[in-house]
């Protein structure tokens, strides 16, 4: 029955629009423990104090779901047809173009868990989308969905890295997949391209130096030491993904809820400078950009703006 249940789970995942589904045994992540401890010891979490909490739960899925037997890891694509160009050079990360992925993918996972129960019987478990202390990249790697690249993101040979990871931790016994080897080779494109030197060494990202950290997680003023290094990113950053050769294989998503509102394409620099609460709500009604609130986005815009306007800026607008 285990093989039958495994096939059912993977077929159901594909039918719901997940690009890949991999399965691993729900057990303590002993190899990840010392790495996580060292990362925290170095202070790479910055002001993200929540990453210091629930150390044991991050490593042991049975503490999140008692009796858990399997971790089902999933990939949900968000690569757009093309980057959002608009009428200004201010940029937001691709994952935030449309509706918040937490909502979109969580909706899929609820249906997924219901269908497993319909097809298999009583199954206990929980669904996760970057919303609990789950080391999703470690589980995805174990499940054969890809390998962890030098930029610390999961890379997949046929989809690159523009995708979300999600998990079901369930008490259903399933066949486990084998991990995938590392295909980064000698490439250091992501390390070379990071303008804030956040990729401190291969496979290790200093979160406290990442542009995404500064523009999303940091609630206080952005330090002057990184002035001029944001390359016009006002929410998140895709630089280490844009330069990754594996993202040449990324395929456009088919999720309508991830499409940006037309108004976002028409924003000029002047529009961004003068953004109001009403415009903010219209541009990002259900977007992850809501995390910064208007005040945070305005802070980011001001930070990347050249205070001494370059000749011709006004005319171009």
Automatic annotation (TrEMBL):
Instruction: Tell me its EC number(s), please.
Output: 1.17.99.6
Top-level taxon in the UniProt lineage = Bacteria
Q: Does the keyword Isomerase apply?
A: no
Q: Which Pfam families match?
A: Fer4_16, QueG_DUF1730
Chain positions recorded as [4Fe-4S] cluster 2 binding sites: 194, 210, 237, 240
Positions of the 4Fe-4S ferredoxin-type domain: 172-204
Requisite cofactors: cob(II)alamin; [4Fe-4S] cluster
The protein's GO terms of the molecular function aspect are: 4 iron, 4 sulfur cluster binding; cobalamin binding; epoxyqueuosine reductase activity; metal ion binding
- Note whether Metal-binding occurs among the keywords: yes
Task: Identify the pathway.
Answer: tRNA modification; tRNA-queuosine biosynthesis
Q: Which UniProt keywords apply?
A: 4Fe-4S, Cobalamin, Cobalt, Cytoplasm, Iron, Iron-sulfur, Metal-binding, Oxidoreductase, Queuosine biosynthesis, tRNA processing
> Which InterPro entries does its entry note?
4Fe4S_Fe-S-bd (IPR017896), 4Fe4S_Fe_S_CS (IPR017900), QueG (IPR004453), QueG_DUF1730 (IPR013542)
Q: Which Gene3D superfamilies match?
A: 3.30.70.20
Q: Could you give the cofactor binding note from the entry? A: Binds 2 [4Fe-4S] clusters per monomer.
**Catalytic reactions on record:** epoxyqueuosine(34) in tRNA + AH2 = queuosine(34) in tRNA + A + H2O
**GO CC list:** cytoplasm
Q: Which residues form a coiled coil?
A: none
User: What is one GO biological process annotated to this record?
Assistant: tRNA queuosine(34) biosynthetic process
Q: Top enzyme class of this protein?
A: oxidoreductase
Record-listed [4Fe-4S] cluster 1 binding positions:
184, 187, 190, 244
Protein family according to the UniProt entry? Belongs to the QueG family.
Which NCBIfam families has this protein been placed in?
A: tRNA epoxyqueuosine(34) reductase QueG
Q: What does this protein do?
A: Catalyzes the conversion of epoxyqueuosine (oQ) to queuosine (Q), which is a hypermodified base found in the wobble positions of tRNA(Asp), tRNA(Asn), tRNA(His) and tRNA(Tyr).
Give the protein's recorded name.
Epoxyqueuosine reductase
């Amino acid at each position: 029955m285990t093989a039958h249940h495994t096939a059912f789970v993977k077929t159901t995942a594909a039918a719901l629009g997940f690009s890949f589904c991999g399965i691993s045994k729900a057990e303590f992540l002993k190899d990840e423990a010392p790495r996580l401890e060292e990362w925290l010891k170095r202070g790479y979490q910055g002001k993200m104090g929540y990453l210091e909490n629930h150390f044991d739960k991050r490593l042991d899925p049975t503490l999140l779901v008692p009796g858990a037997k399997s971790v089902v890891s999933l990939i949900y694509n968000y690569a757009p047809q093309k980057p959002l160009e608009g009428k200004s050079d201010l940029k937001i990360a691709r994952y935030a173009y449309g509706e918040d992925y937490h909502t979109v993918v969580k909706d899929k996972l609820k249906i997924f868990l219901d269908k497993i129960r319909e097809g298999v019987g009583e199954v206990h478990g929980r669904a996760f989308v970057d919303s609990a202390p789950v080391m999703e990249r470690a589980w995805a790697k174990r499940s054969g969905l890809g390998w962890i690249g030098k930029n610390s993101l999961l890379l997949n040979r046929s989809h690159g890295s523009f995708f979300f990871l999600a998990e079901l931790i369930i008490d259903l016994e399933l066949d486990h997949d084998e991990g995938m080897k590392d295909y980064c080779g000698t490439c250091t494109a992501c390390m070379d391209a990071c303008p804030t030197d956040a990729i401190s060494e291969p496979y290790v990202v200093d979160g406290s130096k990442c542009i995404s950290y500064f523009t999303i997680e940091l609630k206080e003023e952005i330090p002057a030491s990184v002035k001029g290094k944001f390359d016009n990113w006002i929410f998140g950053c895709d630089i280490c993904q844009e330069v990754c050769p594996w993202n040449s294989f990324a395929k456009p998503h088919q999720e309508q809820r991830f499409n940006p509102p037309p108004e976002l394409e028409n924003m000029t620099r002047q529009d961004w400078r003068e953004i109001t609460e009403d415009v903010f709500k219209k541009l990002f009604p259900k977007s992850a950009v809501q995390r910064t609130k208007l005040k945070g986005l305005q802070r980011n815009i001001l930070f990347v703006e050249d205070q001494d306007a370059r000749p011709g800026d006004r005319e171009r607008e």
